[in-house]
What we know:
It is found in: Cell membrane. The chain is of the alpha+beta class.
Amino acid sequence: xxxxxxxxxxxxxxxxxxxxxxxxxxxxxxxxxxxxxxxxxxxxxxxxxxxxxxxxxxxxxxxxxxxxxxxxxxxxxxxxxxxxxxxxxxxxxxxxxxxxxxxxxxxxxxxxxxxxxxxxxxxxxxxxxxxxxxxxxxxxxxxxxxxxxxxxxxxxxxxxxxxxxxxxxxxxxxxxxxxxxxxxxxxxxxxxxxxxxxxxxxxxxxxxxxxxxxxxxxxxxxxxxxxxxxxxxxxxxxxxxxxxxxxxxxxxxxxxxxxxxxxxxxxxxxxxxxxxxxxxxxxxxxxxxxxxxxxxxxxxxxxxxxxxxxxxxxxxxxxxxxxxxxxxxxxxxxxxxxxxxxxxxxxxxxxxxxxxxxxxxxxxxxxxxxxxxxxxxxxxxxxxxxxxxxxxxxxxxxxxxxxxxxxxxxxxxxxxxxxxxxxxxxxxxxxxxxxxxxxxxxxxxxxxxxxxxxxxxxxxxxxxxxxxxxxxxxxxxxxxxxxxxxxxxxxxxxxxxxxxxxxxxxxxxxxxxxxxxxxxxxxxxxxxxxxxxxxxxxxxxxxxxxxxxxxxxxxxxxxxxxxxxxxxxxxxxxxxxxxxxxxxxxxxxxxxxxxxxxxxxxxxxxxxxxxxxxxxxxxxxxxxxxxxxxxxxxxxxxxxxxxxxxxxxxxxxxxxxxxxxxxxxxxxxxxxxxxxxxxxxxxxxxxxxxxxxxxxxxxxxxxxxxxxxxxxxxxxxxxxxxxxxxxxxxxxxxxxxxxxxxxxxxxxxxxxxxxxxxxxxxxxxxxxxxxxxxxxxxxxxxxxxxxxxxxxxxxxxxxxxxxxxxxxxxxxxxxxxxxxxxxxxxxxxxxxxxxxxxxxxxxxxxxxxxxx
Length: 852
């Protein structure tokens, strides 16, 4: 048995060495296939890892569980449980309210090292506070306060011990440590010492939920990430603390896992395409190799070699090729992944990490090896089942049957002979054309999909002007919007109005007050917000649904009144945003009419019988001391309706109305601008951006600026992943197709050396032979382009058109990648056969005629 295996190994090794050209092409194909598997695994694993890391940073901590209110004794009991890995403690002092921190929440706390490190807030320079007058802050807060990143600097924080109180406490500290700020989190931490915390909380009862000062919080890291809620419930049950409420980190939720899986779907679809492309070329390589060596396998059969042993020889050669190609592909694929991950995830905040999970290399190796194994099945079966007699009669057409001789009165032409050569092995021809066409069709589809994206549609849903400037508290959903803010002051307005190329400007003010819901509006609300609608609402926003139900029961709601002029008013009264009613600018300017905002319902989905949950057209609403007539119901455009409310302490149901800004200023003369909109000439965009950059750098670092240009760049960052993956897969598959074409042409010419010598010996010239081979290459290219143009036209015209029907796309039929690739394919179709011919001519006709 050992001797038999030794003989098989020897035959396998010598057969392997005898096919050097085949080996080089096969190794390259296997390496390319492994490279794409590895890089896609790296991208998918890194995408998941970075998405989870980003969610950690957004939630503010990376522990599995957090307790909002817990006693020190309870925390100690929980930390002692065997299923708990680590527990971090923190005591809340209050919120800083320095004017320079407007728009950025700063929580003053004591925290132990565990709590700080799991909150991405552990000092990287300096230490955590030890003395009563020490504080540690992040760089975001230091920059807003204008304090240098230097230990020992004085820091004064103004804060409230109780958010409901007007009393402000001023405390001055010495900076003892700092770290890079977490921009993804809504709040920053100001760590104080335990001594300071004990002094501030001495004699206080922190058991009440409304009490902030002295509130004890905890973060728990479990020993396992599996079944977190069940584990935590069991821990609390074991400790007789079942009534204690906790929150699970969103990064560990099933929804997050589903989101991460959804983001990696393109990578796994890419792997399917890579498998198909890899199969096409590796199968073709081994099919050609077996066909060329079929007489050798027939001779082995004559000597008594079994079908199983011949298959073992084929698989042995494949394994040897894998041993060379797969490691090379793993290394190159991981290096490519390291380059692509930062490109793909460039829009994410924080440090981007490239996953080095061993599963990447195990999975890539397994997938590549399976691709090779499956590709070898049919060639191995062909080699194993051939009989010695069949092997002697076997030719490149893949059949030993006699064909009817073709007759022609016109004689043989070079194009006709070239075309006939393609038909000698139809399977190989189909494989080569399929392999080449696959990459070209994919490239056309990805390009057409990206070309159909309409940036104007996308931006119109996010911003209504070239630039939007907001008050620093506009998005402050913790402390609430301050209608008397100072961000959008007269100096800034004057700078904007003095800009060259200013084409339009607009202002937005807002105020919040109580509203008595009239009978007709109440009926509208009850008709729209049925029990089923409220139930569905509660499934994702329980407090919002409860607030709506309470408002209908009490007949009271909070009214948000917007004062608009210019760009925002002109936008919201456009035809597509007028859900019901008509806009009369002259009547509206009198200050006797309002526009009532409706929910975000597309105009096409409603008719005159549709009841909207707002005040009806023509009805009267009393806002404050004034009575208004409702002129129209309008769509809540994001740039106008999105933002924080004034009162964030109590969740209320809000109804929004729009009045002219001049009338608004008469009612609330002390209110300042909430938003400033302006458009400038395209040639002046850069100058306007520079002015705002200088202002935010030198005058007010808290000014929120939204521009169409930055949002366009942000979109490109966010969609970079799909673009990179799509184009990378298409290009590699196209390269695999070209490699398949090269291999097929080279093998077809080399295997017919004797045949070419015979036809040259009876009169065919070198020039005629060269032209015939070039025609053969051009036929390959012609059929490939015909298939590619046909399939691309059908795919782009149907699938891509359907995909562009929704969202921010305007379908544009284009086959631009094919137009670019056509001359390249034609050039290769000429150059490769010509190069093969020149190599062929190195041997004389006599030498080739003597070949076996």
